[in-house]
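Comment thread on ticket #2218

A.B. wrote:
> Attaching the input chain for the structure job we discussed in standup.
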Amino acid sequence: MMMMFKTYTTNTNPHVGSTKSGFGQGRKNQIMLLNSSSSSLLFGRSATTKASSCALSKSFSDVGNGGSFDRRFLRRRLRRRRKSDSSWFSSNSLASGALVPQKKTNDACDEMKSRANNNNNTNNKYTISRVLRRGENERRKRAALFLRASAGGDEGEENASLSAGEEESAKVVVVPARNYDDDVDDDEEPNFGVKPPELATFHRKTALFAISVGFAVFYGFPKPDVLTSEAWQLLAIFSATICGLVLKPLPVGAWAFGAMTVSLLTKTLTFDQALSSVSNQVVWLILVTAFFARAFVKTGFGDRLALLFVSVAGQSSLRLAYGFQLAEALLSPAMPSTTARAAGVFIPVIKSLDPRTQEFLIGQQLQGTGATSAFLMSGAAQNFLCMQIAIGMGIPFVNPFNEWAVAAFVPAFICMMVTPLIVFIVDPPLLNATPKAPMEAAKKLQAMGPLTEIEKRMCLSLGTTVFLWIFGAPLGIAAVVAAMTGLCLMLISGVLSWDDALEQKGAWDTLIWFAILIGMSQQLNDLGVIEWLSGFVRDFLISWNLVGTSAFVALHLAYFLSHYMFASQSAHVGALYGAFLTMMIAGGVPPKLAAISLAMNTNTFGGLTHYASGQAAVYYGSGKIGLEKLWKQGLYVSCVHAFIWSTVGMAWWSVCGIF
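C.D. wrote:
> Ran it. Output below, let me know if you need it in another format.
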């Protein structure tokens, strides 16, 4: 509650406080004025008039002498609140400069007001002696208005206002001072209702558990001879980091920042190594495309697109989910970045829909990306990397684009059709059936009229970005550079301001924690930890004499579960794809089958965790889905996709002649 205390000294009446007043010589009196909004706060009652009020004391020991602020009276009243049924007083608009009695409170007050009304003294001046402020601008203006009104008006007007009592909304009460020395501690400061700041949330138990996981890895297992002490320390820190990201004793960004700090304090990583991935293109693509989402919302174009989707397939949340899946499948050849599709198109549209459908649509859209990105080789960046590694190892792919499309068509299409239904059954939306929504959406679209000027500028900027995403690769323009070009056009054309970009806290938070995790993953690979894990898996297969089908299944399972240690699908491919492909071929798996199946497996775990991929970070960063639900959906949808690829996919690949 906003409140303002104002106290005033007066030279008005020579009889007030004198021996003639009936109150006794030298006896103190308090005049109390307070902004009407704070009466119930201090005295625990609401006023019955327009402007209720409560009291702050100002004592006067004599008429001609100024008084001193008496805290004890206020503390007394704070301790004895709700003991009186009558309102103390209220204050009229301070700009009027009038202090008009409201009603009688006791005989002493009545006598005091009568003498003040009968006074014709022209020396009526008021001076502010103390102001306790909250919301300085408004209250300073009101105080200044009061001073000008009281000091600038002529004498007749002031005396008339004091004597006439023409308004009920301004109130004055004069209360005799009392002796509070017996029951008040002078060192105690009054509480004016200001709420003290709260401590930030920190879950100690979950933090200790996450830290104990790191200690268990470091001290509970012997360090392999092939690894350095720094590599083993980093593995322990990374394990504690992942555990903390799941349990969330602190926000994700804060926990990742703390993990990086620990790696620096223990000299596990240098500063350059810890922040090496700040220059990662995927990280900056996530950040820049998040600003596109802001442009969609600000210009209203996101609402227009959302209404268009609803008018076509908005009879239910499930049909809308299928519409989004189809739209992403159609966009994937033109926008090969899953992160760009998520942040630049679908997040703004979903945020414009009914809040009761947003969590369901975000979840299914993230999990459905595993199917839509596998449709074509151009559907995601990791697809190109997989084929490059396979071709570099001598696996004969004559026409990679066509062979990929044929191998992925049937199983990817089934995954795309099954994903929304599975998420709908397991985690249904709060709102499903909306039969009238398409008609209402069509009416709203018509009411919106044609594109506004700011929408046209936004479309031009985003269209330039999409054009560069499609045709920029032959020109050597990376996806992140295309996105940065579009953002600059939005800033120049006035679609976005830099303040709009700075306000996207989720995007900047993602920049921090995602860059830290990618950096740790890269350093694990550079320090030989990933190679040691691959060798451990190879030795395990040899010891159990797993070859052929058993080796195929075991390696796929290990490849899938190892993604919990990676913050990027591309990073996972770069670290493990070649090693696992070599082990599969050595175990008797046909080379083309090994290459295609591992590439498709890479797409299945894109929604496994909130850091599993760039699009996962974007969808989680939208704040529309909880961490626990995202991990749960990521696990069961990924398992369903893996089952489809291992059954329908294997049968289809057999028909296509891949093995």
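A.B. wrote:
> Thanks. Noting for the ticket: The chain has 27 helices and five strands.
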